[in-house]
């Protein structure tokens, strides 16, 4: 039995060494052709996939599909990877439009009462300097707003934010001794604000969106003693509408991976601000009206009325300092960064001011709605 095993193995080896018939060769060739074709098709599919991924539209489409199915996981992956998602964080065009529309609604309300005053012989003008104009405040009360403060240059309203213990605030003001351009630039120039705002601990632009021109700002500010300083990370975007004679600045809180929360400060995660400016004549001539809508959650343990008092007193103080800083920059001819395209006689210069000063060029998205 043992001797027969080598003989059987030898017989198999001899059969293996015989020439292969044409039928088997044809089968092998067909199999190789099939495998090669499969691999070529797979390579083509992979090339097409990467081509789609690395185009702007394909990348956005893929991200939207992933975000729709796994929104939480995508945000977690981005946070762990230290990636800031501009697709979700940037200030959108509709946010700018809504802020401008709020200003137009207020002006329409003023026009309605002005017409009513012409018929009755009374003066109804939406002017914070006109303390007899109670009709506008009455109309605001029907929308949930209540008057909080009346000063020479502005009025302050507030209304509760549904489902919270917080208020939303709205200021309507008017100045005649400074230009809209200067007032707007002083708000945006972070370097200059460090000089006139004594509460600033830190104020820096840390990121920019190349598509819309939105900027992420890190702001740390002192709070009244004995409270800790507050830490804000927010995105802002501005727009100068020459056709409709409007200037808009929108800001709101975001999270950015390069600015983690610090135990030294209290992070404010709820913050919104919209400023709309209407020049009386032009961007460079003195005189304008403005509307500021503001809300935030300063993360305090104080009662609601204490928080309301701090905001109600702090906002007018900030506006007065902003106005004074604008006047000082004008009178002392201090250099303030110009964010607005310079208007020329008979037309407008569409080139961003940053290009005129030799700075890095700004994106077109900062100057117009997409």
Q: What fold name stands as the CATH topology? A: Alpha-D-Glucose-1,6-Bisphosphate, Chain A, domain 4
Sketch the major β-sheet.
10 strands, mixed
Structural domain count: 1
The CATH architecture would be: 2-Layer Sandwich
SSE string: HHHHHHHEEEHHEEEEEEEHEEH
The CATH C-level name is Alpha Beta
Number of helices: 11
CATH homology group:
START domain
Distance between the termini: 90 Å
Based on helices, strands and strand pairing, what is the structural class?
alpha+beta
Number of DSSP-assigned strands: 12
Unreliable segments of 5+ consecutive residues: 116-126, 128-132, 343-370
Question: What general outline do the C-alpha atoms trace?
Answer: elongated
What brief labels describe this structure?
11 helices, disordered C terminus, 370 residues, Alpha-D-Glucose-1,6-Bisphosphate, Chain A, domain 4, single chain, 10-stranded mixed sheet, alpha+beta, 12 strands, two-stranded antiparallel sheet
How would you sum up this structure, described in words?
This protein is an alpha+beta fold. It has a single domain, classed as Alpha-D-Glucose-1,6-Bisphosphate, Chain A, domain 4. It has eleven helices and twelve strands. A hairpin with an 8-residue loop joins strand 5 (215-221) and strand 6 (230-241). The longest helix has 32 residues, at 22-53. The chain starts with a helix and ends in a 14-residue tail after the last helix. Residues 116-126, 128-132 and 343-370 have low confidence and may be disordered.
């Amino acid at each position: 039995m043992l001797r027969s095993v080598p003989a059987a193995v030898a017989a198999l080896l001899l059969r293996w060494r015989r020439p292969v018939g044409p039928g088997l060769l044809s089968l092998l060739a067909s199999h190789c052709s099939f495998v090669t074709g499969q691999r070529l098709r797979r390579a083509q599919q992979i090339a097409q996939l990467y081509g789609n991924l690395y185009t702007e539209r394909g990348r956005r489409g893929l991200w939207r599909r992933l975000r729709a199915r796994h929104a939480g996981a995508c945000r977690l992956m981005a946070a762990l990877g230290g990636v800031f998602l501009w697709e979700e964080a940037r200030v959108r065009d509709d946010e700018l439009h809504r802020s401008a529309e709020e200003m137009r609604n207020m002006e329409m309300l003023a026009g309605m009462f002005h017409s009513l005053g012409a018929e009755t012989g009374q003066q109804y003008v939406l002017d914070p300097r006109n303390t007899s104009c109670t009709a506008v405040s009455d109309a605001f009360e029907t929308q949930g707003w209540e008057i909080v403060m009346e000063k020479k240059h502005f009025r302050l309203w507030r209304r509760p934010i549904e489902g919270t213990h917080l208020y939303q605030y709205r200021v309507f003001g008017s100045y005649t001794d400074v230009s809209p351009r200067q007032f707007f630039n002083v708000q945006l120039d972070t370097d200059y604000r460090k000089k006139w705002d004594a509460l600033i601990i830190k104020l820096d632009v840390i990121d920019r969106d190349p598509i819309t021109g939105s900027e992420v700002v890190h702001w740390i500010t002192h709070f009244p003693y004995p409270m800790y300083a507050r830490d804000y990370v927010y995105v802002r975007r501005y727009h100068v509408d020459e056709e409709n004679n409007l200037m808009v600045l929108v800001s709101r809180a975001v999270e950015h991976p390069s600015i983690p929360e610090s135990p030294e400060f209290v992070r404010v995660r709820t913050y919104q601000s919209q400023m709309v400016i209407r020049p009386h004549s032009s961007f460079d001539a003195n005189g304008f009206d403005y509307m500021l809508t503001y809300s935030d959650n300063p993360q305090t343990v104080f009662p609601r009325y204490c928080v309301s008092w701090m905001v109600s007193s702090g906002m007018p103080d900030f506006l007065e300092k902003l106005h004074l800083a604008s006047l000082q920059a004008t009178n002392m001819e201090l250099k303030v960064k110009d964010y607005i395209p310079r208007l020329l006689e008979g037309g407008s210069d569409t080139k961003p001011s940053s290009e005129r000063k030799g700075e890095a060029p700004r994106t077109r998205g900062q100057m117009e709605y997409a």
